[in-house]
Known about the structure:
The structure holds two protein chains of two kinds. Chain A is mainly alpha-helical.
Amino acid sequence: MSVRLERFxxxxxxxxxxxxxxxxxxxxxxxxxxxxxxxxxxxxxxxGIGDFLFGIPARSTDNQLHDYPDMRLAGVVIxxxxxxxxxxxxxxxxxxxxxxxxxxxxxxxxxGMLGGMTRxxxxxxxxxxxxxxxxGGNALLAAEGDVGESLFSxxxxxxxxxxxxxxxxxxxxxxxxxxxxxxxxxxxxxxLDAVQARLRESTLRATTFTEHxxxxxxxxxxxxxxxxxxxxxxxxxxxxxxxxSVIPLLAKRTLLREELExxxxxPDLPGDAPERRARAVxxxxxxxxxxLDAVxxxxxxxxxxxxxxxxxELLERELxxxxxxxxxxxxxxxxxxxxxxxxxxxxxxxxxxxALKQIRPDLQLEEAKRLLLSATERAKVDRCLERxxxxxxxxxxxxxxxxxxxxxxxxxxxxINVLDAPxxxxxxxxxxxEAQGEGPLQARLTDAQAQLDDAQTLLDSALSExxxxxxxxxxxxxxxxxxxxxxxxxxxRGELDDRARExxxxxxxxxxxxxxxxxxxxxxxxxxxxxxxxxxxxARAERDEYWRRLRGRLEDVKDEGEDxxxxxxxxxxxxxxxxxCDRLRTEADSVARGAQLTIRQRRLDGELEDCQRQLDxxxxxxxxxxxxxxxxxxxxxxxxxxxREMAYWLRTRHNVLERADALARRARxxxxxxxxxxxxxxxxxxxxxxxxxxxxxxxxLAGLLAMxxxxxxxxxxxxxxxxxxxxxxxxxEVSAGSLREKAEEHRQALTDWEAxxxxxxxxxxxxxxxxxxxxxxxxxxxEELARQLHxxxxxxxxxxxxxxxxSAFAKDAEQIIREVAPExxxxxxxxxxxxxxxxxxxxxxxxxxxxxxxxxxxxxxEELKSAERALEEAERDLRALAGAAGVQSNEQxxxxxxxxxxxxxxxxxLPELQTQITEAGQAPLEELIxxxxxxxxxxxxxxxAEAEDELARLEKQxxxxxxxxxxxxxxxxxxxxxxxxxxxxxxxxxHIAELRALTGRYLHLYIAAWALSEAIDAYRREHKxxxxxxxxxxxxxxxxxxxxxxxxxxxxxxxxxxVGVRANAEKVSVKLMSTGTREQLYLALRLASLERHxxxxxxxTVILDDVVLHSDxxxxxxxxxxxxxxxxxxxxxxxxHDPHVIALAQNTIDPGRLVVHELGGSEITGSPQLKIDxxxxxxxxRAIAAWHRHLPTDxxxxxxxxxxxxTVARHSHTLGVQSSVAGALGNSTEGQSTSAxxxxxxxxxxxxxxxxxxxxxxxAPASLSGMFGEVQQESTEPxxxxxxx
Amino acid sequence: MKFVHxxxxxxxxPLTGLSVYPGAPLEAIRGATRQxxxxxxxxxxxxxxxxxxxxxxxxxxxxxxxxxGLYLRAQLTRLREEGIEVVMIRGNHDAASVITRNLRLPGIxxxxxxxxxSVVLEDLGAVVHGQSFATREVRENLAGGYPDPVADLxxxxxxxxxxxxxxxxxxxxxxRLGELVARGYDYWALxxxxxxxxxxxxxxxxxxxxIQGRQIRECGPKGxxxxxxxxxxxxxxxxxxxxxxFKRVSLHADGVSDEIELLERAELTLRAAIAEADGRLxxxxxxxxxxxxxxxxxxxxxxxxxxxxxxxxxxLGVEQVWVERIQWQTAAPSSQAIGEDxxxxxxxxxxRASEDPQILQTLADGLRPLALKxxxxxxxxxxxxDPSDPETLARILEDVRRELPSMLIEGTPx
Lengths: 1285, 414
């Protein structure tokens, strides 16, 4: 793995075009500084190096000047074997790497040189920027100089290691901390628990539903009975109601029949007779009025038509007059255009004559057309000329290629003649192939041995889990029940336990209910000694007994068993029975409550008994189950524990047996592999000896294979080289022959062409010596002539057309005027035509008006006739109506109509009333009349009221029952459509998935943090010594001796920490170092890591960007020297915008160890332009040193610093340099013109390093660096007083 | 005659592996198994089928909610009202279910579990033979005892079996294909294996598969088999009924240079997957693999890209896609440059850990506080993740091995 750039070209990239950086001067790569002012494209160039090595990104922004397809980067790369590769990188999706011949090159070529590094890895490890130094320094501070982390971080080049570790811890803590209930895992766990509780609550148990279904069925039966009773009551009620409603209807019927008999003589008129009469009268009135209006209008219109008169002659010639008038405007325009066209025609003829004169001055214009060429003739001439050019070029190329091929063939023949014949290695190759076909035998042997050991360990571990312990053989011999059986037992046992638990719970619930019931009964008994129906029955029996005795005594039947005073006793018993009856009635609620309690008690007792019975049965089943369980292990002679434990025992046994089998298998594998290896060793040794090699007796299989591979590769390479040369020679000979034939063909074609050309010259009458160029000029002149002749033809046609149109118009106008208005004959033709048109328009208007009036007259006459007809019809209708009613006049018609209508209404009402009666009574009319005859209406009302009450009571009961049924039904329906449990289960699964995701993420973070911590420790152990040794050398150099060593100290918890050691042996922890020093410490570690990488893996180009930006000049020099040292081992390319850094480098580093390039320009050999004599710089350096010495702690020092800054400003003016120093010292570019107080205030806020930087920019660095050495010495001695400078 | 063959309904069995994220179509996945079953009922009605045979596993074994049974009864009542006969057997899950013991299914033929029995459907000219599972585990060959075929009737064998073995399903009621073919029946309606398969033609031996996939391992279209019998031939057609479609969506990141390109590829792939789901809700596991130079970026922006991909899925099909999981398995091009350095050291640590049981055990011990807080459901099952299980940790070590180098170089955690 190695990359060194000998040359790098920005051919078409960003703002660059064909910019070349020659980087090949130094043998190991060297130290290169590439400089250029801001905005010149340094960042682009840096990016270009990355793009060249790794490819141009799809969305590159470096296409300002060159489009994506044109973007190109190129370079010469030297690989680990010192081979040069000329490569070009283009932008694209594939085949973006090209060779020098523009043929695609595999990306693997460059990837191999880079060791497969990604761009990120490269930029992280081999690129150092100013920002990365700042961040690296801060990271050292954050890690408080932890040795492991510092070395690890510097090795990576990535600066976020500490932040990464902190972030990993933070995210992991956010996900899970055992006692933080707000951590995400525990929150999700709580949510899952809540959902699972909801799932349990919303699960509908089978028993709940069965009980509910039973209740629903009972309520359904009850409803059926009640509905039947309601139907019966409703029938009775309806019968009574119908009778009550029929009686008034029958009375009405009688009245109507009597009225109808009174209207016997009334006429029978149609129903619409009154409307018809009214319509006829109204119509007669309306039509009479319309007839009068129409007569008046007709007379008025006839008079107006008579008053209109027009010119019929003009109207007959209407079309001819309009035509002539329409052409008038065109005629006027044509007359003016005619003159223009004649002028154009003359001009075109002149131009045509001119063109003809160029070709054939001897010909007239009329003869010119025969000189023109047709399109076919013209194309033929063009083709002939093109063919000549093509054939000449082909002949030349074929002759050149043929000569090259013959030359190359001669050289190859010479090479082939000096080659040796390759040796025979077929048997050796076969032996190698066979040995390789076995795969990595040695590794497999080692692996097999390790697997054997592992298998033994696993077996031992599995055996140790067996309780009680047993040997493998013994375990294999026994046949315990299978897992399914044990699982079956476990399930059965689980079910039995579940059932037992459910039954016990039920028994406890029932017992609880029984206790509650007894409590209720006690309360009831205490509150009132309520008699029961049984008490009454008993009292009645006793009373009857006493009555029987009393009666016997009254009848003198001696009762042997009783001597007491029976009448008194009977009387007492009678009263007691009566009392009981009364109390049963008055305390009915308590009695009912007592009865309910009794029923409930019986039910509970029954259920309790049932429950106990089931528990007893279950106990028997449990015992049987235990018995079967014990029996299933009797053959194994093991006293089984619980099914779950035995399942684990069974799995462990299975595990042991599997592992024992695996052990045996692996032992066999090891033996087979060993035999195979020995066989191959023998064969290879024998074949190598035959091939002339001398293998040692101790050589391993891998060693023999390697030796055989080398021998084979040598033989193959030799054979391949010879074959390649021969193949190439054959191809060249064939190619040369073919090229010769081609050349001859082209020569023959040129001869044919000359004959064709002679024919064309003759045909067109062109000179015999006319060559190609002459022919092209003649062709151009002929084209121009053709264009002008065409123009002449067009214009001639246009002039004749205009003249013909003008003549036709004059003739037509004269004729129409003569025919229609001879009095206008003397007028000019256009005026006469206009007058004629005006007269015609007037005649047309009169004709149109008369036509409108005639139409209106016809309409009015038609209206008059229509009104007269309608009047006649209306009078005829009125006469017909009077005839039908049998009256003499129209005035008698209304009364006749009234009588007729009433009789008709009665005849309609009577059948309807009868229908109404039969429908209301639900019986034939006669039957209803008979039934109603004997009924008392008042008694009927009372009976209907009773029936309604009964029905209402039953319906209320039914409604209550329906409510209950509805509730039960809806509850059941709800149960049938419940999916609450399913939803909760889905939600629970979602929470489980979330918990798994959170857990997975936590495990990632935990393991990443753990691995990182382990890796840091391991890296520290492995690399601490060499890295720290080198960093210890670099750190004092980079700090210019401010620190003399870098050591490992220990913090308060004994963690190893980096500490810097000062010259006075004071140890400074990373925390107490200044920002700049920390950055230099980080740089020292980075450079040490890079050197170690180069040592281990080979050289690799390192890219730096403004790494010395904020260092003082001495430290800058030290850093540049360290980079030059690194350049001795690997290529170092540093970018900077600062010309002063270049000057510093050139004055600090040996010229042979540094190359400076100006971006967009050439290599810089001299110093930068800012050159000032040392004597001029001295006062500035002195002033700056003084400024530095006087820290702004008190008023006096501040004044001193102010004076120093003003001295710097004054001198910079004297030197004629743009005073950036003054700017840095407090914007006092005006020098002394700025007030002292203003400068003073600004200086107080100015950093020392800025002053130094600014001073360096205005002064020659060689002088200034020397100057600082002196000034620093002066600063330790008593000051001469800055006022003097 | 036309009949429908269905199996493995697993009613109210929840869909697993779907963790909630903003924009996830929560409502759309509710009651997926019920909706699929209602589609089955509609298929029977729409196709005017005369018979529905169900080859077992109507419920999930450990599901106790009786509401599921009531729901089943309501749907079967609808079929009965449409004049469609229903014959079913109980599978291993039904045998273990408490619902089975308590639910009456009037008018439905549930075949006995103590012996093989037959239901003759004279009007249809068919007879259905079968035997239910008596217990959760039936290891003996039930098909061996099935009755001889009845002459002049179309003989259907209804059997819940693993047939000749299936790696993903328990080996219950095993039998051989040849044995079923030789039995003389016209159609074998099988259940238990959740993947639809026609194992033999003439006579047909068919696994209907389940009607609704419930996890990522039950990918692809799910449904029932519609069988049409004429005098000349028996035509079999599988009809899709699922409401939610599980699918593994592979996204190859080979050669991807940045996230925009990745998202563009993802959009194309997701669009195709949505179109394939044909209007159903797609439960997609997006599996991203491939070697890419953008691996570092993909690791660094993992959480944001997860959100981007979920958002993209939501944008492409509102209420149509649920991203079940995004599985990142991209890798950076291999690099020799990180052999001896800090990254190489880290990789060595991880490699050592995944090979050394003792280290794995130490890690597991460190994670025991977390393991104790997790319920068993999270730790067990095919997708379970148990922090105290060395195998799980070895798997995670592999993932960390792929990601940690990029985190180190670019300084950002996963």
